[in-house]
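Hi everyone, sorry if this is the wrong subforum. Our group has a chain we'd like a structural model of before ordering constructs, and none of us has done structure prediction before. Sequence below.
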Amino acid sequence: MDYLNKLNDKQREAAMHTEGPLLILAGAGSGKTSTMTCRIAYMIRELGISPYNILAVTFTNKAAKEMKDRVEELIGESPNMWILTFHSACLRILRSHADVLGYGRDFAVYDPTDQKTLVRNICKDLQIDTKKFSHAYFLGAISKCKEDRISPEEYPREYGTDYREQMIHKVYQAYEAALKKNNAMDFDDLLLNAVKVLEQDGAALRKYRNRFHYIMVDEYQDTNQIQYAFVRLLAEEHRNICVVGDDDQCIYQWRGADIRNILEFEKDFPGAKVVKLEQNYRSTGTILDAAHSVISHNASRKAKKLWTEDAGGSPITYYRAEDERDEASYVASEISRLTEGSYTLEEGRKAGRRYKDFAILYRTNAQSRTFEEALSRRGIPYQVLGGLRYYDRKEVKDIVCYMRLVQNRADDLALIRVINEPKRGIGGKTLEKLQTLARVRGESLFDTLLDEDVVASLSAKAGKGIRELTDLIGGLYREQANMRISDIYDRLLVGSGYMKMLEDQNTIESESRIENLMEFKSVIIDFEEDDANMTLAEFMERIALLADVDNHDSEENAVVLMTLHSAKGLEFPFVFMPGMEDGLFPGWRAFDRPDGLEEERRLCYVGITRAKERLWMTGAEQRMLYGKTDYTRESQFMREIDPKLISGDGVMQKKRSNAEGLRSGMWRSEPVRPFDQLKYARQQTKQNVAAMQASAEADFAPGDVVTHRKFGEGEVLSSDGKIVRVRFADGSEKKLAIGFAPLEKRGRI
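Answer:
Right subforum, don't worry. Here is the predicted structure as tokens:
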């Protein structure tokens, strides 16, 4: 039992408690993964519990893989044990029981790009103006409905029937019908439909209850109501449920996480044992004290305080820059200084700092640009987490859709994307007619294309292309069980003509796209090497469920730039937290909800506790954001940190005059709502456009006095109703287009 002896007293207490409900409150960096893996090993090695009877669920593929690898280091390989993400676990259940809900078991999983395409097509069919209602608006509303378990039929009763709600209702109905017709589910469906299966199919519920006598849930504070229902259904009979989490790190309420799940665990499972893991193995005492001084201001939390044997540590460095460019330049210079070795012993524990030791964690993606520019100027390599995913590149998305068709020929969305990639002579109108025919027949588009009479009605080129396509997909569909995924991929790439299309283009761009397709083959082979028996369906599931954080390459020697939300679960020796200003962090929206500021404070706590050795917090006297430059106030969170823990620019709190205090970045003594830059910028944009449009209605005549937002005051010399010629105060003459120029009539000379 050497592995248990490596745990501290509290960790060991949690690992050896296996019967009945258990809540492990695991603070940041407190060794929760070690505790969970040792607990699983203890159940199997010492108590003789079968791995088959254990279910462990978490949120990211990265976390699930790490946990599985560490468990297998202790107990050996165990293919029958489920250590999976929530989505993967639900997907496994649905692969066996989707027919309960009327789906084929080979259903496709639509990612956000697929969802957007589907909604775009629906809006086009329903003639909905997407300038008034964006695709993201509809998808957000649909996701919220699924999270609240409100079906399209129930929607009018729950939300009303005004014009906006009618639009959502129509799109929601069409969206669900299209998913069902395409034998497809989105990510929300994986959770929701798995719960429906367990609720509606008594045999399925008994099967999984009989199998999973012991259930462990990681990051329980991030569960939403559907995930909560999933766990409750499986755990109610045996009650051997262990949840691990930290209410201080609940930062996803905006996407459905319900902090009540962890705060009320003892009420949901009476008699639950509670173990607090408060010893931190990641950060210095200074960093932990700073984190606690912020989070202790939250009212909705369970009392705990992290501590470490590594007391002390370098103070937090605070820098108040002139503007966002000065802020970025300062951060880049600090990274350059530390990687070159120009620092004191107190600043770091090891010489030879690498770029990968540094992370810049910001509140919004809009902040990244100035840091990218500053790092580039100094030749510092960096990777941005949160950019375009590799799997969202056009050529990769295209070939993935070909693979989806081999798996599920009813996937109309995939077929529509690739039917003319490469060109097969299928014009837009022809495709619309084929789709209409498929709808009338009540069959998939692929099945319609198998009808020889339909194909014969097309042009010779289109008919030939369709026959080649259906023959290729049909043949691979029938033979997929006998082929490696990489072989299927090669046949698709060549047989579809996609590779030849790129080669014929013979451009730098097409060469780059070919390189990406070849790199994708490397991805496939890597998967095959890990699991030689992996099926095409399993491979498609793996890439569909990849999260952004899974793209973090910890081996790449580059500074990491990401949002604070993306950083959860990661750690770095040196961390920079820029934008510490009211209105940016905490964000201005936090002041609109009673619990908004508490969630922002938890996000600040997460950011601080990512740092192992050093932490910098920076802000700017004035900042341009969304095209608007404004003076800022220091973040409320800076004031909450004990001043004794901070070095550098002082956090000023006294009040002089309001104007003087605002200019200097000092705090006003009275509460004040932060300036909403995004809202202001949007209003200004609309007003500017309105002013330009208003000029089209003005009747300009020689002698009129006008003002222009760029050139100032001037006199109209002539106007023909379309072009106005103006002489400005500096003597220059300009010809300006009426209706576009920001001109305002002031009077006459």
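For your construct planning: The two ends are 96 Å apart (CA to CA). The chain has five domains: 2-98+191-279, 114-177, 316-388+553-664, 390-545, 678-748.
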